[in-house]
Amino acid sequence: xxxxxxxxxxxxxxxxxxxxxxxxxxxxxxxxxxxxxxxxxxxxxxxxxxxxxxxxxxxxxxxxxxxxx
Length: 69
Description:
Radius of gyration: 14 Å
Structural class: alpha+beta
Strand order of the largest sheet: 1-2
Number of domains: 1
Shape: globular
Number of strands: 2
Strand content: 5-15%
Helix content: 10-25%
Distance between the termini: 26 Å
Order of helices and strands: HEE
């Protein structure tokens, strides 16, 4: 999670994770062979999208990642 803190002081206040958190997650899961998506609008943010556990998801990875449910 980000340091949250004061909204005026934290430039990533609205983001679910800051860059250090992304790096930690990436390092921990690098030995596994499954798709990973960062920056998906989910979690404790104003514009969050639900992730349906057990739902089918299609990841299309090119210049940008497209997620289809």
